[in-house]
Design brief:
single chain; mainly beta; 8-stranded antiparallel β-barrel
């Protein structure tokens, strides 16, 4: 594990993850996301398609900040078609999901519907101390500290995920 105090290139995320029963009211945007976690690395290729068909492609790198499972330094590089095509040839595990961006009561969060139907919500606390999830988010349980609920682990668990 790499410990970083701060970085001028990375954005620090303090996301908590929750298994939830449903997508709450207040969806303002829906995105289709296809990730490829590159074998043997902490790198992820991500293709995001919005409701209008616009596509965004990027290479991401995430590093945990110490022992706190929710604190992650995240760096992204935006890719053109040639870069995307080249990097997609690298071996990796894929994970597809539909992301629902919810804005309600001054809170913005994402609820991902995995292709198997599982609903996983992400709430970014920013610089504030962690607070209880909003009462309208029908939480089954928090899974922030459980490695099996990270994107890379979920991609490993996908039985139909093709390797490139």
């Amino acid at each position: 594990m790499v410990v970083m105090s701060e970085s001028r290139y990375a954005r620090v995320e303090r996301e908590r993850r929750f298994l939830v029963r449903g997508v709450p009211a207040g969806v303002v945007r829906v995105l289709r996301i296809e990730d490829q976690y590159l074998d043997g690395t902490r790198l992820r290729l991500r293709e995001t398609t919005d409701q209008d068909g616009n596509v965004l492609r990027k290479l991401g790198h995430k590093v945990r900040l110490g022992e706190d499972a929710s604190a992650i330094a995240h760096t992204s590089l935006y890719l053109d078609d040639a870069e995307w095509s080249l990097l997609r040839t690298l071996p990796g595990r894929r994970l597809a999901k539909t992301r629902h961006i919810v804005e309600r009561d001054g809170i913005t969060l994402a609820v991902d519907r995995l292709d198997d139907g599982t609903l996983l919500a992400e709430l970014d606390d920013g610089d504030a101390p962690p607070s209880a999830p909003p009462p309208w988010l029908s939480v089954i349980r928090e899974v922030t500290g459980e490695e099996r609920w990270t994107g890379g682990s979920l991609a490993l668990a996908e039985p139909d995920a093709p390797s490139s």
